[in-house]
Amino acid sequence: MAAKAADELSKLTVNGSAIKPNPQVNGTDGANGHLSDQDDSEDDKGDDTTATGGANGNSASGASKKKKKKKPKKKKAGGAKVQSDPPRVAVSQLFSSGTYPVGEEVEYKNDNAYRTTNEEKRHLDRMNNDFLQEYRQAAEVHRQVRQWAQTKIKPGMSLTEIAEGIEDGTRALTGHWGLEEGDNIKGGVGFPTGLSINHIAAHYSPNAGNKWVLGEQDVMKVDFGVHINGRIVDSAFTVAFDPKYDNLLAAVKDATNTGIREAGIDVRVGDIGAAIQETMESYEVELDGKTYQVKPIRNLNGHDIVQHSIHGGKSVPIVKGGDQTKMEEGEIFAIETFGSTGRGYVVDDLEVSHYALHADAPNVPLRVQSARSLLNVIKKNFGTLPFCRRYLDRLGQDKYLLGLNNLVSSGIVEAYPPLVDVKGSYTAQFEHTILLRPTVKEVVSRGDDY
Ligand SMILES: [Co+2]
């Protein structure tokens, strides 16, 4: 999710070139070094076919689908189970030891280099084990769900179908379908799935009845969140099918990785923004005979994340500007960048789908009865986690718009409208969540894909 002037998630690309054959289940392996068997992971991977026996112990499925040689299967981390297609096996079953794959660990630099081996910092790090496992579990769900999404998203699919596929995958893999009161606060969907196309940069998600179908020439930002106990992984990628967009996607991916590289304890966020901008602007993209220097969208930013709240109050700019705020030990940041062929500036537009209860909502008397009852539903099911209209629909709420608008105008709920650059422009985004652990920086959402 994004915040204007500060914003959103990440994405990844799926155009022919960018897409990699990622091994399934833990795309992450590359990141942490275990399980690097690209080849044999094929058995669990692509077999898209469903059912994947692994889930229920029926190994016959391997034969039906794949047939070919297949070799020693094994290799799966944590046991024999494998993910199904669509993904419905909880990661807690795939990693029954309760130990989840570590993200990409990066040592701190310069004055902070001592942290990697410092005994006090290592002790602090160990004290955080529950927090780390919750974060890594959420990140593993994100990788597995997006791996499915990257394989399945094709022109001709509706945005509703894509959003529901991602959200149901997230619910199944976290083990939280979110239908009983309070369940979605324990785990599940961290915020609404953003499916923002072309000049729409962020915060677009279909509402009920939306008929939008993804096209061949579209550039779509896929920004979704997964949480376990309020530990939100915010990560996004961009999908395009025409290779003419390759440089746009490459610019943004490189810019996001630059931001991740520069981030660290005691680093000024303004310095990160300057580095991101320099990387982004070093790319050009040619579209239909016209060349564009890729521009960072200057009023969108990365942000810190706190438990159950997607925006903690700090921003990470993606242009230079001198913000002296420093990152600190123990903080969590979503590093996200947006590139554009348009103005590089977004404004609110289109129908709102995303909302969130304010953490410090004013206690004002609500005259509209439907607003009072809706507020109760929001508090019990989402707390301060962002939600969208479809999530109210699936809880059986209806005719809630008047009440919802009343909560927004009362300052209790915040609306996050779609953010758009100029019509006819194309925008892309990539995003990762990083943990500034006492000893190392962990890019917890890193995968083989982006
Ligand atoms: Co974000």
Total of DSSP H or I helical runs spanning 4+ residues: 12
- How confident is the prediction overall: mean pLDDT? 87
Rg from Cα: 21 Å
First-to-last CA distance: 18 Å
CATH superfamily of the largest domain: Creatinase/methionine aminopeptidase superfamily
Structural class by SSE content: alpha+beta
* CATH C-level class of the largest domain: Alpha Beta
> Ions, cofactors, ligands: which are bound?
cobalt (II) ion
Strand content: 15-25%
N-to-C series of helices and strands: HHHEHHHHEEEEHHEEEEEEEEHEHHEEEE
Largest sheet: 7 strands, antiparallel
Under CATH, the topology of the largest domain is which?
Answer: Creatine Amidinohydrolase
What would you call the shape? globular
- Tally of DSSP β-strands: 18
The total tally of domains equals: 2
Helix content: 25-40%
User: Residue ranges: pLDDT <50 for 5 or more in a row?
Assistant: 6-68, 73-79
Oligomer: single chain
CATH architecture of the largest domain: Alpha-Beta Complex
Cofactor: Fe(2+); Co(2+); Zn(2+); Mn(2+)
Biased composition (Basic residues): 64-78
Subcellular location: Cytoplasm
Family: Belongs to the peptidase M24A family. Methionine aminopeptidase eukaryotic type 2 subfamily.
Describe the structure.
This protein is of the alpha+beta class. The chain has 2 domains: 91-347 and 421-443, Alpha-Beta Complex (Creatine Amidinohydrolase), CATH 3.90.230.10; 351-416, Arc Repressor Mutant, subunit A, CATH 1.10.10.10. The protein is 28% helix and 20% strand. It has 12 helices and 18 strands. It has helices spanning 29-32, 60-65, 91-94, 119-127, 129-152, 159-174, 183-186, 246-262, 269-281, 369-381, 389-394, 401-409; strands at 104-107, 187-197, 200-202, 219-228, 231-240, 284-287, 290-293, 295-296, 302-304, 315-316, 332-340, 347-348, 354-357, 387-388, 413-416, 419-420, 427-436, 440-443. The strands form 5 sheets. Strands 1, 8, 9, 10, 11, 17 and 18 form a 7-stranded antiparallel sheet that branches. Helix 8 runs antiparallel to helix 9 and helix 10 packs across helix 12 (401-409). The radius of gyration is 21 Å and the shape is globular. 51% of the residues are buried. Mean pLDDT is 87; it is low at 6-68 and 73-79. Cobalt (II) ion binds at residues 1-2, 8-9, 234, 303, 334, 336, 431. Cobalt (II) ion is lined by residues 1-2, 8-9, 234, 303, 334, 336, 431.
